[in-house]
Amino acid sequence: MRTLPFLAGTALLTLPLISFGQCPPGEVEVTIAATTDNYGYEVYWELLPSGNACGNGTLFSGGNNAVGCNGAGAQNQTPGGYLNNTTYTEGPWCLTLGASYDIFWADDWGDGGLMFEVYVNGISTAQFTGTGAGQTFTFVAELPPDRDMAVTKSFSPLYAFEGEDVTFTGEVKSFGAVPVTSFDLNYQVTGGPVVTATLNGMNLNAGETWNFTHPTPWTPAGNGPFEVTLWCTNINGGSDLVPGNDELMLDMVINAPIPNIIDDYLSGTPVIVNVAGVDEDLLVPRDLDFHPDLARNEVWVINKETENSGGSTVTFYDATAPDLVFEYRKDGNAWHFMSLPTGIAMGDNNNFATSPGVFDANHNGPPPFTGPSLWSCDTAVYARPSGGNGSHLDMLHVNPECQGIAHEAANVYWVTDGFNGDVTRNDFQDDHGPGNDDHTDAIIRRYTGFSITKDPNDHIVSHLVLDKATNWLYVVDHGADRVMRLDITTGTPGGTPTWPPGGNPYEPYVEYSVVNGYTWEEVINTGLVEPAGIDVIGDRLLVSDHANGDIIVYDISGAPVTELGRIVTNSPGIMGIKVGPDGRIWAVNASTNNLIVIDPDGFSVGLEESAIDAMRVYPNPANEQLVVMLENEAPQRIELLDATGRLALTQRPNTAQATLDVQALPAGTYVLRALLRDGSMLQERVVIAR
Question: What pTM was computed for the model?
Answer without folding.
Answer: 0.79
